[in-house]
Specification:
single chain; binds zinc ion; 4-stranded mixed sheet; 2 helices
């Protein structure tokens, strides 16, 4: 799966439509990252971490299963 151009420096991508956060290092076809890109509903987090995504109301995607450890 190709990494979205805007996310070369980011690991976590939020989908504003579903309020899910994906781990781009583990993304699967079920994540439909291409769909998120096409709909331009993606969101980057700053800092690029799962706790930050949670703080913003995003839930971990069950396909790529973002983990809590932060780089
Ligand atoms: Zn996912």
């Amino acid at each position: 799966m190709s990494r979205p151009r805007n996310f070369e420096e980011n690991r976590f991508m939020g989908d504003k439509r579903t309020m899910r956060v994906h781990d781009l290092d583990n993304a699967t076809d079920q994540c439909a990252i291409d769909d998120i890109e096409a709909a331009e509903s993606y969101l980057a987090f700053g800092p690029d971490s799962l706790p930050e995504a949670r703080n913003r109301g995003y839930h971990a995607c069950r396909h790529c299963n973002p983990a809590d450890e932060v780089a």
